[in-house]
Amino acid sequence: MAINPLTSAGAMILNQSVQTLKNQMTVLQSQLTTGNKSTTYAGMGVNEGFAIAARSQLSNISAFGDTMSIVNSNIGVANTVLQALNDIGKTIQNSANSSSQTLNTAGQSIAQNTATSQLASMLGILNTQAGDRYLFSGTAVTTPAVASMDDIMNGTTTQAGLKQVIAERKQADVGTSGLGRLVITSPIATSVQVAEDVAGSPFGLKLGAVSSSLTGATVTGPSGSPTGVSIDLGVTNPNDGDKVSFQFNLPDGSSESIQLTASSATPPPTGSFAIGATPTATAANLNAALNTAIGTLANTALVAASAVEAGNDFFNSAGTATGTVVNNQATIPSPITGATLLSGAAGTDSLAVSFAPGDTITVNGTPISFVASGATGNQLNVTDSVQTLLKKIDSITGTSTPSTVSGGVISLHTDDAASLSVSSSNTTAFAALGFSTTATAATPPLRVGGSPLGSATSLVNGTANTIQWYTGNPGPIATARATATARIDASVKVEYGIQANETAIRSQLQSLAVFSAVTTSTTSTYGGGQIFALSQRITTALTPVSGKQSIQDIQTDMAMAQATMKDATARQKQAQGMLQTVVDQTETISPDQVASQLLALQTSLQASYQTTSMLSQLSLVKYL
Q: Does the predicted model carry a pTM greater than 0.85?
């Protein structure tokens, strides 16, 4: 019997077995080197689909992290700027409130000089960039937010700057007579009349109220068109110490009072008028005293108020919706006032067309409803006054400048002209307020219209011939945050845009610019009074007001964006850990496990080699 060597079929089986072991060893060696189960998706196993999805999510998380890093950097720069702006505001407020009103050779106080240097700093930092992005320009990230200080203050060859706008408005408000556009006359020998020069004019002093304790005198008004007040002493002289007081409304929404006391002293003390030998002589003395007192008011507080209002006209993020002159339905109709009722019978001081229960006035989407009585919240009684309506509108718009009615004209003020929209379900009653279908605010810069300036009666659009101080995104300031958005999670976005024309920034910039722009004569009788009145207004303008946006409010918005990103980062970190575990469990392998398998495989392979070698050498002689 013959013993044959290993057959070809057997050799093939052994060779295949050895080759399989070698392939397994190659795979294990690759795993040990790379730490991965395989170099192909097919080799990863049935869970590789989950790993691929996990890797995609990990990539998104990494991108979100990069985005948040950039946004946090931008917000950090913005917060530094905002804090600097806040510090500038406090510095000028304290300076205006406490500094000496002594004027230098340029006709300005120490506080005004400080304001000039701080204004330059403020304009500079409002044009701050983070990378290649202007932070205070809204969506116009490649454009500086504000014009240069020289252009804003002094203008160019073709466009007026703030100083020119203030100077023109001063002439229009003070008037050619220096009495704030008031006319003082004596219709009869024993009377004095004070009247506005033109009905509906936005300029000058406006008669608000008058009160009198003058014995035997008859006082009428404010009434008529233009509005006037008349004091007739009659046939009896006032007693020593009797008083008459006038309250005036100024262009910036403030009010000032003049009180004159009848006096028998010689000479009469300041703030009084001499009691003459007859009522005619006393009336002449009262006329002269009014000329002096109103002239002083017009050349001090009115000049300051005019400068502030010129600042509104120039910067004009705060707009005004101005109605037309309308009369009440009194027996002798006269221009409506704040006391005019929203409904009433013929012959009374009420609107020419009454509002009725169920009517509405809608302000920026918020309705004010009219009820017969017992009004609460956003309701008005039909018997309420025009002034009550204006206060209700102001509470909805949040304006920092109260709306007014003067000379039969209602002016609705707003800090965001782009957002003001007022309409009514009762269009005829709305027209009796002086408005057509919808009242909207003017947004362009305003200039005094007409010549000579001292007798002008209107404001006109100054877009073509006035510097545009804000050069960034022109969109509504109510949506400033939305001008820069970033997705930081699959379903989460943050908004971190800022515009230099936002109320808080604009109002501070406006205050500094107006304070810096005003100069007066060092030899003028009224110079110190003008700067004192202006300093008071600047101090007030820079004082935080509840309900009005502050720089801290913008900082709070930025902090909320950062908090949102911090929360997103915490969530993503946790998700990142779980997703990485899915990937690791699917695609990676333990080095210890691979080493153990590799050792076992080496042992098996060595045994296979020995067996193959022994079988290949098998013969009959060795077998026997």
A: no
Contact 574, 4 (CB under 8 A): no
Query: pLDDT class for 1, splitting at 50, 70, 90?
Result: very low
Angle formed by the axes of helices 301-315 and 279-299, nearest 10°: 40
- How far apart are the two ends of the chain, measured CA to CA in Å? 12
- State the amino acid at position 519 in one-letter form: T
Most distant CA pair in the chain, distance: 170
By the 8 A CB rule, do 313 and 203 touch?
Answer: no
pLDDT of residue 46: 46
- The CA-based angle 419-424-425, given to 5 degrees, is 140
Q: Are strands 206-212 and 446-449 parallel, antiparallel or unpaired?
A: unpaired
Q: What is the pLDDT of residues 295-309, one digit of tens each?
A: 999 999 999 999 999
Residues present in the chain in total: 624
Backbone angles phi, psi at 521, to 5 degrees: -80, 135
- CB burial of residue 256 (10 Å; 0-12, 13-18, 19+): middle
The phi-psi region of residue 90 (left if phi > 0; otherwise alpha if psi is between -120 and 50; otherwise beta) is: alpha
Contacts of 598 (CB under 8 A, 6+ apart): 25, 28, 29, 32
Tokens linked to 429:
């009653």
> Rounded distance, CA 180 to CA 216, Å?
29
Structure-token pair, residue 408 = 């039969």
DSSP label of 545: -
Task: State the pLDDT at residue 106.
Answer: 86
Query: For tokens 């001008």, what's the residue?
Result: 483
What are 186's two structure tokens?
């004596």
Confidence grade of residue 538 (pLDDT, cut at 50, 70, 90): very high
Residue pLDDT, tens place only, 248-260: 999 998 999 999 9
Task: Say if CB 248 and CB 206 are below 8 A apart.
Answer: yes
Of the candidates 413, 424, 483, 403, the one whose C-alpha atom is nearest the C-alpha of residue 446 is 413
- The first and second tokens of residue 559, run together, are 């902090």
User: Helix, strand or coil for residue 423?
Assistant: strand
Helices (H), 155-278: 162-174
Which of 434, 415, 439 has the alpha carbon at shortest distance from 362?
439
| Cα 169–chain centre separation | 25
Structure letter (DSSP) for residue 98: H
**String of DSSP letters for 129-164:** EETTEETTBTT-TTS-SB--HHHHHH--SSSB-HHH
| Residue listed under structure tokens 């008083």 | 243
Q: Can you name the residues that pair with 182 across neighbouring β-strands?
A: 196
What is the bridge-based pairing of β-strands 366-371 and 379-381? parallel
Task: Supply 146's token pair.
Answer: 């504000």
- Under 8 Å CB-to-CB from 289, ≥6 apart: which residues? 260, 268, 272, 273
DSSP, collapsed to helix, strand or coil, labels residue 599 as: helix
CA distance 314 to 465: 11
Model confidence pLDDT, tens digit, residues 562-598: 999 888 888 867 766 666 565 555 555 656 555 565 5
* SS3 annotation, 318-335: CEEEECCCCEECECCCCE
Phi, psi (rounded to 5 degrees) for 278: -135, 165
CA 267, CA 265: separation in Å to the nearest integer? 6
Cβ atoms of 424 and 392 closer than 8 Å: no
